[in-house]
Amino acid sequence: MKEQFVAKRIVNIGLIFLVAIGVSVIAGMMGRMYLDQLLGMGALTVLFMVLFAFLLIYERKRKKISNNRETDYGKILKGFLLSAILTVIFLFLPEFTSPVMILPILMSAVGTYELAVCSSFFFCTVLEMAKGCQSYEILCCTMLLLSGFMIAHMLEDTRNKMWCLILIFAVAVLIPVLFSYFFYQEPHYDILGKAAIGAAVTDLAAAFVYPFLTKQKEAEIDNFLTDITEEDYGLLRELKKFSRQEYRHALRVSGIAEKCAYIVGADAAVCKAAGLYYRIGILDGDSMVENGVARAQNHCFPEKVTEILSEYYGIEKMPSTIESAIVQIVDGMIKKLEALEKTSKIAGGWNKEMVIYQTLNEFSAQGLYDQSGLSMNMFLKIREYLVKEEALRL
């Protein structure tokens, strides 16, 4: 599919930029920086945001963000904002006591490890610049971040959870204590207590916040599929306003495609959503395929749904998945029956059965499903179900 700029993504990248600028300004003011220093930090922030934006785009195209090329960066924005808030809180903490390990753990939960590395080092850079760039504290911060990245990898396996929590607590206490000793050349027991509190907070984030955010990221596509099939979804309301007939057609295709998917073990949620929007390009007139794909991309539909819309009746490319074949079969079948109902007013189940058999056999003979993975057994199951499906009886 052709890549295009999408408003939701541009807005979210812009908001991430504003958050980064906000953190830099707050840090600079709290660090009592001079105007030229503030401008320098602003330039550093702009440079970071350019790199971060390119990394976001690159990771999305690699399907590393929620395994979906059409993501809108919404989860990344929330994680970035949470990290920014924590960074501002860290500005008020004494030296060597900021639990910065929490930053890579949280960002890796909502995005990728590359994004976590980039954002965490940016926030720590701003933090240390505001605090005066003491060498030992910078080293302490760096060691904590590196430890956070490594432990975040291990947190993916829930079997390691207890060991990870123990390791987090030990590292988050020992590293600040050691570097404070290197700096002061004497032990500071108050730092030990404050570091222990920070370690406990990091443990709580790893134990509860990290799995929650990870589940949210993994469920992003499923949640979005549910959202776009709700009756009050904006694009669906627009279709209903455009044509009641098209809206009813979409509902029928969606419901029957979902049932067919269950019968053959395909992704029913994808078929339900794709069935609703299979003909959405009609809202913009000619070039239904191109218009439909553009609509889906502008709303950041999951890639599987957008792909099905791009394979509309094999006009530009043949159906490449079982779900795409199912939606085309059901839409074609219903469209044929609706046309016959208007012209010939056929009555009697046997006539409709004959039309169904004949139409589906024609689709199959055209080779529409050769690249979809739809087996003959699946095709026959779908055909038999459509013959019996009451919703096809107009």
TrEMBL record:
Annotated ranges, domain Metal-dependent phosphohydrolase 7TM intracellular: 41-213
Taxonomic lineage of the native organism: Bacteria, Bacillati, Bacillota, Clostridia, Lachnospirales
PANTHER family noted in UniProt: CYCLIC-DI-AMP PHOSPHODIESTERASE PGPH (PTHR36442)
Lineage: superkingdom: Bacteria
Species in which this protein is naturally found: Roseburia inulinivorans DSM 16841
Pfam families: 7TM-7TMR_HD
UniProt name for this protein: HDIG domain protein
